[in-house]
Amino acid sequence: MKALNSFGFPVLRFNFRGVGLSQGEHDNGVGELDDVRTALEWLEAEFPLPLIFAGFSFGAAVGLRVACADARVKAVIGLGIPAAPADEEIYDFEFLKTCEKPKLLVSGARDQFGPRKLLEGLHATLHEPKKLVIIEGADHFFEGRLKELREAIQLWVEEALRP
What we know:
Elements lengths: L1 H5 L24 H16 L4 E6 L1 H12 L3 E7 L23 E6 L7 H9 L5 E6 L10 H16 L2
Parallel strand pairs: 1-2, 2-3, 3-4
């Protein structure tokens, strides 16, 4: 959020239903799809600009599913992709294989929820344009490596999204 905002992008950060002080109850990724749709509708109404979706962990699993299918979204960023728990439908990233939008996936080399080999395998199946960045020494939360995370996003934005 801070990285995209520092590049001049308007940013909306929100909690899914049932998280923090938000209303409702966690819906195992089903109702949360509507949360993402509502957020995109609000962003489009407030900021008539091309939309870029960025999500972290569960937010990436849910949000990328909506963002890839939404014509208003021009590019997607998935941080800390939880590729390991493939037994749950919400963590099935098969839909990314048909997403033709510019895609940036960033993960820590020590991310216990997104093992490098699984992410490299997923990345290999995706349409271009795509980029996978593995931040050495970083865990799922990028503890102590936020500078490298920001730099990876900045470089991608400059390469993929600027004319």
